[in-house]
């Protein structure tokens, strides 16, 4: 009965994540310690549990296959979380399956923030070590330290803000460089993925549509 027990636990975890990330007083805002007064945010996310049935970690661009698809409400573009943090983004969906662009994919950028300083940048894998990635676009005036936590910013509507991405393990700066060279240890162990959670953001379409009007004002 181990498989059915695991599936039940995954459903329970999804329900708990729904409560956690939709509670008004649990929302993470970079640089703020006070609760967010936003009643809309309390109804923004739903989490759908799924089982990993295929997963690669040794390629330059890696993908994951899940055992649920459009029949369960999965659509392309959804964020995907694991127990310990960010996993990737849904790429394609069939009736009963979906494929995910793993964080271990050189084309995937995750909008991220250094939790202690509220400085934001982008996390991207360089195709090398499956346990590490790089944090880009952190300007040299920011106080960056080994051990700082990297979390999702919430800017791109894929993930709720405050989801763990990793921890800074190495910081370098060239003499005339504008940005730090930062390496992070990823929170998710991609070699041990079993169950994941897809993020349905009920406000994503509204946000994307409004921002598209700014980018294309003549349309």
Structure description:
Helix content is 15%, strand content 35%. It is an alpha+beta fold and 219 residues long. The strands form 2 sheets. Strands 1-2-5-4-3-12 form a 6-stranded antiparallel beta barrel. Strands 6-7-8-11-10-9 form a 6-stranded antiparallel beta barrel. The radius of gyration is 18 Å and the shape is globular. The protein starts with a helix and ends with a helix.
Brief descriptors of the model:
2 helices; single chain; six-stranded antiparallel beta barrel; six-stranded antiparallel barrel; 15% helix; 219 residues; 35% strand
Specify the number of helices.
Answer: 2
Q: How far from one another are the termini? A: 56 Å
Mean of residue pLDDT? 84
Largest sheet: 6 strands, antiparallel, barrel
Q: What is the number of strand segments?
A: 12
Draw up the topology in text.
Layout: H1 2-22, E1 45-55, E2 61-66, E3 79-81, E4 86-93, E5 98-105, E6 110-114, E7 120-124, E8 132-136, E9 149-152, E10 164-172, E11 181-186, E12 195-201, H2 204-215
Antiparallel strand pairs: 1-2, 1-12, 2-5, 3-4, 3-12, 4-5, 6-7, 6-9, 7-8, 8-11, 9-10, 10-11
Brief write-up:
With 219 residues, this protein is an alpha+beta fold.
């Amino acid at each position: 009965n181990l498989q059915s027990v695991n599936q039940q636990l995954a459903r329970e975890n999804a329900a708990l994540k729904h409560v956690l990330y939709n509670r008004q007083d649990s929302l993470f805002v970079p640089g703020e310690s006070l609760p967010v007064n936003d009643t809309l945010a309390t109804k923004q996310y739903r989490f759908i549990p799924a089982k990993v049935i295929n997963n690669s970690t040794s390629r330059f661009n890696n993908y994951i296959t899940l055992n649920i698809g459009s029949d369960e409400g999965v659509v392309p573009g959804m964020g995907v979380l694991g127990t310990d943090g960010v996993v990737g983004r849904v790429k394609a969906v069939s009736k009963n399956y979906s494929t995910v662009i793993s964080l271990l994919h050189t084309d995937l950028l995750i909008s991220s923030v250094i939790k202690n300083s509220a400085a934001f940048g982008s996390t991207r894998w360089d195709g090398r070590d499956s346990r590490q990635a790089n944090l880009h676009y952190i300007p040299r005036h920011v106080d960056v330290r080994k051990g700082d936590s990297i979390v999702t910013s919430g800017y791109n509507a894929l993930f709720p803000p405050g989801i763990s991405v990793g921890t800074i393990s190495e910081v370098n700066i060239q003499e005339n460089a504008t940005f730090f060279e930062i390496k992070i240890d990823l929170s998710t162990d991609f070699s041990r993925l079993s169950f994941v959670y897809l993020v349905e953001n009920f406000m994503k379409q509204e946000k994307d549509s409004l921002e598209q009007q700014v980018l294309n004002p003549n349309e």
